[in-house]
Write a structure and sequence with these properties.
Blueprint: H1 2-17, H2 32-52, H3 62-88, H4 93-101, H5 103-109, H6 118-145, H7 161-179, H8 182-189, H9 198-217, H10 223-246, H11 258-278, H12 287-318
Enzyme class: transferase
Membrane topology: Multi-pass membrane protein
EC number: 2.3.1.199
Length: 319
């Protein structure tokens, strides 16, 4: 028993010692113990929550859900902005200053006018999509012009302001996954047990661990691509959830729900292609991390594809 405990302590020490010293002081990063406890507590809530709510009435969370979902839109949009600004526009002071000056206006553009009349809402969503597409196009072109490599971009482990800024964005990616555990709690309180699928629980629990490892060991470098796509997808996704939370009268305008799953699948396929080609070229980026992301995305593609089939294609056949 003592030897087993010593092995555990030794493994823990190796995990701690081999991490990025810049991110060690940050919340939940130094040791895997806190994040492991969070995941364990999360699984306990998933198991016990529906049982505790069995004989209780669903909790009305309409206002909380609207605030929460649009706050997540803002957080995702901010992280998307940070990745683009400090990764794509590095080494271009004039452009950096220009985009920093327009920071507030940029975030406003990501919020469609949800609280106008219905026609305004739909127009706002369209406007939102066009603006985001314009920014993505511009940032991709700028990244190419600034020589940011899509084939191999090692992590900058220096303490330069830009490197630290990028590492902090990675931490926010990780912490946003902790916040997103609230999705599950809201399902439980509203007695939406049908939403507590294996896909939902697996996705939420494992994303925290993956992003913790990312911040602990590779906070920056080519991790930017995953953060870029993921924050964009979450901006769209939480926009949908926020609109849906306004009320049932919005449902007829949310016909694009099924495309959220398609967007998730496209994201994971791009991740596989992106990390897969990293395994074929020499790059000063941990191969183990590329293999981890590659294999993880395969599991997500399988699960999301099954969800899409069961939710849309199979139901259509039954009709």
């Amino acid at each position: 028993m003592a030897s087993v405990w010593q092995s555990v302590l030794s493994a823990h020490q190796r995990i701690v010692d081999n991490g990025d010293k810049r991110t060690d002081p940050w919340l939940l990063i130094y040791s895997p113990v806190p994040v492991s406890i969070i995941i364990l507590l999360y699984l306990c809530v998933v198991w016990a929550g529906p049982r505790l709510m069995k004989d209780r009435q669903p909790v009305d969370l309409k206002v909380i859900l609207i605030i929460y979902n649009f706050a997540m839109v803002g957080l995702s949009a901010y992280m998307f902005y940070e990745v683009c600004l400090y990764c794509f526009l590095r080494g271009k002071p004039t452009m950096v200053e220009m985009f920093r000056f327009q920071h507030f206006q940029f975030l406003l553009l990501l919020f469609p006018p949800f609280f106008l009349d219905i026609r305004g809402c739909i127009g706002g969503v369209f406007f939102h999509s066009v603006i985001v597409w314009i920014f993505i196009s511009q940032f991709l072109v700028t990244s190419w012009l600034s020589n940011y490599s899509y084939l191999c971009q090692p992590v900058d482990y220096s303490s330069s302001p830009l490197a630290i800024r990028m590492a902090k964005v990675c931490w926010w990616f990780f912490f946003s996954k902790v916040i997103e555990l609230s999705d599950t709690i809201f399902f439980i309180l509203r007695k939406k047990s049908n939403q507590l699928t294996f896909l939902h629980v697996y996705h939420h629990a494992t994303m925290i661990l993956n992003w913790w490892a990312g911040v602990k060991y590779v906070a920056g470098g080519q991790s930017f691509f995953i953060g870029l796509l993921n924050t964009f997808v979450h901006t769209v996704m939480y926009s949908y959830y926020g609109l849906a939370a306004i009320g049932p009268h919005m449902q007829k305008y949310l016909w694009w729900k099924r495309y959220l799953t398609s967007l998730q699948l496209v994201q994971f396929v791009l991740f596989i292609l992106y990390t897969g080609q990293k395994l074929l070229v020499e790059c000063d980026f941990p191969t183990s991390m590329n293999i981890l992301v590659f294999c993880y995305c395969i599991t997500l593609i399988i699960l999301f594809s099954n969800f899409y089939y069961q939710s849309y294609l199979n139901k259509k056949k039954q009709k």
